Every structure is written in structure tokens, then in C-alpha cells.
Amino acid sequence: MWRRTYLFLVLVRLWFALSPSYLHPDENFQGPEVIAGQIFSYPVRHTWEFTIEHPIRSVFPLWPVYGLPMLLLRWLWIGNGNDGEIPPVAVFWTLRVLMFIISFVLEDWAIYELVPSTRHRRVAVLLVASSYVTWTYQTHTFSNSVETLIVAWCLVLIERIVASPQRSSFLASTVLGFVAVFGVFNRITFPAFLLIPGLRLLPYYTKNLWSFLFLVMAGLFTTILAIALDTAFYTPHSISWSDLVLHPIFTPLNNLLYNLQPSNLAQHGLHPWYQHLLVNLPQLLGPAALLLLTQPYISLRLYSAISGIFVLSIFQHQEARFLLPTIPLILSSVRLPKRDSLLRAFVASWIVFNLALGTLMGVYHQGGIVPAQVFMSKQPDATQAIWWKTYMPPIWLLNGKNEVLRTRDVMGMPGPQLFDELLTPLATCDTPADRRSNEYLRERNGTYLVAPLSAAWLDSFLSNKGLEGLRFREVWRYRRHLNLDDLDFAEDGVWNTLARVVGRRGLAIWRVTKSCP
């Protein structure tokens, strides 16, 4: 029964990995898009983290996680006699499957090793495997998802090292040195999760100095390698040894200095110190948050999660995904209720919570962006694309179309301003071809508006079938799309807002034209 349940949950995880939900732009712009621009000829967009004077994102962890699979995929593509570049959407789905595999193998394996009790181990593995966080966030290309695996395996290595205090652990110490530095360059928040577990290593390394030397040497080598890769990436010319010595790019330090400035964090949103503890953690754990308060299982994993939450709460910018490494640690550190009635109530609430949040975040959350971008890549006349009230679309999925297609992300621009933008410089003149089915694709220039169906401001313009003013011709629609950033309870009320956003869910693309003299 336990094995069948677990295998079923693995298939659920794979299904969500292959669903085109879009949880946050960072899952593309801080990872795959950067490396895709290095390996393939796709034109890409580098976000501010990579373009400021002192860049704060390292490319070192991106190469083994995303670069190697892309290189392997390109090798297989060419080896099979295919000409031209691999379609970006094929790379996109390959990376999703990759994230599913490393989540399924590395995360579950780590939990299996970290929990010593057989009975508790089965419960822990099932709780982690049935969490919507595992289904969604861990199967997407977030640096936080990678951080989750790094934290878990650092704990595994620490346990292996201290398990045999009388024996040297050269291999485990070497791997720990590499993985720990890898984690720092992936996210500077990583050391927060090892503050307390790391204390267990002090007595061991005091007695085993050779093992400590292997740890330091591995960490030092990895640091030099990471700095060299980052310096080569951010230096506009071929680097020399003098560049590495005199002008090294040390992205973790840049990242730390940036985040220590409240004025910088204010640009991304400031939160109270209790945001993680009282809002984000319950949002990720659901009913399991009650078990954490009432029936915790004291373990090194729990101490790791506590230290991480404490340090992350010091910073004023707090997003729920920052806590991803704590979720498997906490879920493997709680006890289920012993009374049958309480156990049934928990199981029922746990299933409902994860099915609801899994469907919302894994299927509908900005779910139309990736399919819309694939559609836009196939429109021969597209030269302007305006994305309104959505997340920033991944440019690399345009498959080279962005050499002629200008993508503008206007996010929350007021409707009247959007109208002026479209009417004056962007919308093309309405032609006889625009009035015939599919004939508009023969035009040289075309302007497209991508917006959620819940954008009610557009309603008054969509009925215009004549030539006066702007004309919106719907050419594509995707129903499994929800825009949670379009909630306006203060002005529309709770019921009307939900009726608009949920009842009118979906993403559409309109070809925009105007009447010309």
C-alpha cells in the first residue's frame, strides 16, 4: 500500500511538472534564459541582476544544473541528423523533466537517509511527496528549488561524517566543501540553514584535521572556479590572469551588499519580520503547520529549518519561495495524530489543501504565458507584442522570432494609457486582409495584445467591428490561466473580484489595428 501510494504521488509530480504554469518570472530569467543565450543562438533578455555595475547573480551553478542538460540535448539533436537549432519549447520541457527527476531522486533520497526510523521515514517521504510544494515549486527551474536539494544533501553529508567519529572522511568532506560553496553561489541565504547543523562538525574536525583540510581545499578550489566563470561571463573581453587577480567578480558578496541596503529591498517590496512565520510558512505547509506547533519531532532537520527561517526573517523582503528548503525538513519532523478521528481529519484536510493549491499553482497560475509565447513565435507578421496584466514572458521561447518581434511588458499600466500607447505609435492600419480569416498573416507588420480575459477594461472595445478607433481581433485563447495579481477587493468587493478573475479565467491574444485616413 505504501509503495503504491508513493508511486502514484510520483506520477502526480510528473503530471504537474508537465503543466505549463508559471509561478514567477525568476524561474526563467535567473536560470534557463541566461544559459540558453550562451549555448544556443536564441536572443535573450538579461534582467537587472546581470546588468548592474556589480552583478549579484552567479552563472557558476547554472552551468551544471541547466547548461549540461542543454549541451547534451544539442548533442543528441545534431547526432540524430537534425538541422538548425533545437526548438526552445523542447528545451523548456526537457528542463522541467530534469527538475522532476532530480526532485524525485535527490530530494526523496535525502529524506530517506535523514530519517532513521523506518516507520517515521515512510510517513516523512509520503508527506513530502504529497505536498503541492514538491509538485509545483520543486519541478520548476527556481534557484530556491536547487537550494532545497543542496541543503538536504549537506545535512546528509554532515550526518555521514559525524556518524563515524573515529574514522577519517576524506571523500564526504571533499564533497561537502564543493556542495557548500556551490550552495553559496546559488543563493546567499544557503548558509542560514547550516548554522546549527554545522556546529556538529566542530568536535569531529578538531580531531580529524586532515579531513578538515580536504574540506577547505575543496571549498577553495570551487570558489576559485566559480569566480573565474563569473568573471569570464561578466567581462566583455577575453579574460586574463590579471583580470582574475585585479578585477574578480565575486557575486555572493555583491548580492549580500545589495540586500543589506533597505533602499534596494524597498524596490522589490518590504515585509514585516513575521511575514515568513505567520503568512508564508502556513501558505506552504497548510494543515502540517498545526502539527509543527503541536507534535514536532525534534531533529537536526528541524533545527536547520528554524535557523533558516530566523535568518531569512531578518531581511525585509520576504517571498514564500525563499522558504522552500524548510518544507521537506519540517514535513519530515512532524508526527501524525495518534487518535483515529484526528488522523482522519488531518489526512482529509491535507489532501484537500494540496489538491486545491496544487491545481491553482501548478495548472492555472499564469498558465497561459508559455503557450502564448509559443503561439507568438509562429506568427509571421508579428512585430509588436504588448503584454498587459501578466508576468514578464520568457523571451527565449520565441525561437529567434524576437529578432523582429519587440516584446513590451506593460504590467499594471492603466487602461487609458494603454489605449493611447496602442492608438498612436503601435497599432497598424486596418487593411482588407485584416477583415478576412487568416489573411492578415500575410501582412509585413502586426501588433498583438496579450492580456487576461479578466481585464474587464477591454470589454467596451472588443465589440468594435468597424474601422473607427481601435479594433481588437481575437486570434488565440487559453482557458487554464489565472491572474492573481489582478485582484482588486477594495474597489470591486470580494465576490465581484473573484467572479471576474476566476469566472473569466483565461489568457487571450488580440491582433490590434486602427482606422487610418
**Low-confidence runs:** none
Residues in helix, %: 40-55%
Q: What form results from the Cα inertia axes? A: globular
How many distinct folded domains? Answer: 2
What is the straight-line distance between the termini? 73 Å
- Rg, rounded, reads 25 Å
How would you sum up the major sheet? 6 strands, mixed
Averaged pLDDT = 88
Number of beta strands = 6
Quickly give the structural class.
alpha/beta
Q: Roughly what fraction of the amino acids lie in strands?
A: 5-15%
Number of helical segments with 4 or more residues: 25
GO molecular function: alpha-1,2-mannosyltransferase activity
Protein name: Mannosyltransferase
Pfam families: Glyco_transf_22
InterPro entries: GPI_mannosylTrfase
